[in-house]
Amino acid sequence: MLELNAVSRSFGGLMAVNDVGFSVQAGEIFGLIGPNGAGKTTLFNLITGLTPVSCGDIRFDGHNILGLPPHRIATAGMARTFQNIRLFATMSVLDNVRVPMQAFTRAGLLAGLFGLPASRSQEREMLEKSMALLELVGLADKAGDPAGSLPYGARRKLEIARALALKPKLLLLDEPAAGMNLAEKGELSGFIRDIKQRFDLTVLIIEHHVPLVMGLCDRLAVLNFGRLICVGRPEEVRKDQCVIEAYLGASHAAS
Amino acid sequence: MSAFFDQYGFLMVAIVQQALLGMSLWYPLMAGQLSLASIGFYSLGGYIAAIMGTNPWFAPWREALGPAIYPLQWLIALIVSALIGLAVGIPALRLRGIYLALATIAFVQVLNVLVLITDVTGGAVGLFGIPQPFVSRLGYIWFFGPLLVLALIFSARLTRTVAGRSFMAIRDDELAAQAMGISTTFEKVRAFVIGCALAGVTGAMSAPFLNTWNARQSSFDASVACLAYVLIGGARSIWGPLLGAALLVALPEVLRPLKDARLIMNGVVLVVACIYLPQGLAGLLASLRRPGKEAGHA
Ligand SMILES: Nc1ncnc2c1ncn2[C@@H]1O[C@H](COP(=O)(O)OP(=O)(O)OP(=O)(O)O)[C@@H](O)[C@H]1O
Ligand SMILES: [Mg+2]
Questions:
Q1: pLDDT above 70 for B228
Q2: Is the CA virtual torsion B142, B144, B145, B150 positive or negative?
Q3: Are A63 and A3 in a shared domain?
Q4: ipTM of the complex
């Protein structure tokens, strides 16, 4: 599904991602963990094309996606959420979910302006699908509100709904539990499994919350200072000496 | 009554005309792009109409077409402006924020210089005696009025179409818009070209209205004024450019009794509006209509 080969990215002198290679199988829930500043978000940006890679090779669904513009990668079946929530804040909750669907519409500007049948049926279809997605994340009753007015946890859910609206094969979640309350965190694992089944997804997830990651993921990759230090099943990763030193040890000391 | 129209007719038409120029900046702003190119396309459209109206080469056209030459001028201005807008927009819209604004200012300056050294535009003197279809200034409301109504309907529809939502998504968060499958370059160019086309047609209608046309039509001051209409009126509402133009065009007239102090008053109103009305006049009206909702915002 996704293959990374010797992927690197430097910012000035800093190697934010350094010679990283792993592959994610179709249908997997694959975790990406590591201490703060390890390069996890940067790696997401490289995969989704928002940041160009310095060197290396990324293949998605059998195709080389290096150098493709981000919107092409998105419509090829890759959707993401952002660590620091990037909704379309002044637009309605409904429009936030509708915007990604527009990438697959065909009726043009004039059809829309004159309300031609092609555009009307297309709008009706998008409305139905959007409402179904909002229903799924429990935001249907907020459809008309500006997205920026939602509480934090709801914004995270809306970002997931917006990503699903792209009909992705691969869903990338950047710290979806951050800022959620305990109850919401508790529901998150089940929710991710549920949407994975329902939409036939492969999931790549960055998460600091260790119990969540260990319980949810089929496999994990651990980054430290931009380098990949371990890939494996959760119980293997948990026992790995490098990981204990670099990550679990560090978080243990911090807490 | 007729004295009233003599005095205020020009003012009313000028408000609508200036509102159209504000509107032409409103479209790129809807996609989050700060452009000051409109006045250049206004000038271009004006020259197209002025040349078609005065140049001997077009005499057979004028004879054959009669008043139908005016819609033809608008159409040609629209097409030429859209094409040049496309050519300018594709490279310029790689720039962001203030750099895009600077690039569009530079474009207008280049255009002005070209006009000054070209014969067919009348050089520094410009073009005179552009034929006028109406006897009174107020008559031109039949040009600008319908165009403004069309532009308003267009804008209102746009916010409910695929293209309009893409524009707003880019305005809210360009990076997220890309990640959600929007070709941001394509949409930004589209919003820009719509604005250019509207400015061009407004210019083509303005040449007969003002009777003469020259490079002073596209001064930097005029550019800034167009932007002020949108910002003072409100960039988030389709009514913003009209409200802004109404205030800014009428204000100097209303303040005339204050003599010299009116310039100060004019400035004070602008500064106050900028500071206290982040959503412009349209935002103020909206918050008055549903009190409380906006409370605590200012
Ligand atoms: N655009 C950028 N320009 C310069 N440096 C950057 C940029 N983006 C990230 N970095 C740097 O790259 C390193 C990795 O950052 P990144 O955000 O990928 O870490 P992360 O693993 O996501 O951390 P966190 O857990 O805090 O989210 C950091 O040192 C960061 O300062
Ligand atoms: Mg991060």
A1: yes
A2: positive
A3: yes
A4: 0.90
